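__Record contents__

***
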Amino acid sequence: MVIAGTRPILQTTMTGVRLIARVIPLPGSMGFYFTVLSLVPLLGSFITEPAAMTLAARILADSFFDSGISSRLKYATLGVLFVNISIGGTLTPFAAPPVLMVTGKWNWDFAFMLSAFGWKAAITVVVNAVGATLLFRKELRQPDGHGGDAATRSESIAKLFQYVRKKIFGQVASSMVIRPGVIEFVNQMRRRGFMVGVEHELFVGPIGEQDYAKQLVTAFI
């Protein structure tokens, strides 16, 4: 769980989910939402269920729960996620703790798990994800999205400024004095996956005078 919660693993998973979601012909955030609730739980059969739960929870928190979605969607998402994680680890004999306790005693191998439980679990996971996605399709299909991931939202914002020259941003940054909380805000955005940064230029004044920085959020360049 600790390893699954690290930034490299989370970003790698987000990239994979984003690529698969783009192939699914669903509007708004529906494809992304469906992929998180179906693919990530099934991934638990290979990385263990706790690790899959950590990844899914982090992705949903950053992409949906922090975006002001309705309480109904939050509770439904958690319910489907718990169920799918619980059964999504039964494709293999080594991921789900209850299965792991009996595989050695009963000689359950990969082929047996896949034929006896795995395919049924996979179908159930997909059906649950489809049901939740269709049930909240009106909310998920909104163009400004609750969701999509941070990288997708960054790309959408960047398109608004794609014809503005970097020099112009530099000039604007040079005229702005950094405000309290900006550094903390930028760091928080970076942890969520947004491609932002701070362009700073330090000026050393007389002793006792606090140095200051000039800011530029580079997500729009």
Remarks:
- Residues 151-220 form one domain.
- The CA atoms of residues 71 and 104 lie 43 Å apart.
- The chain has two domains: 7-148, 151-220.
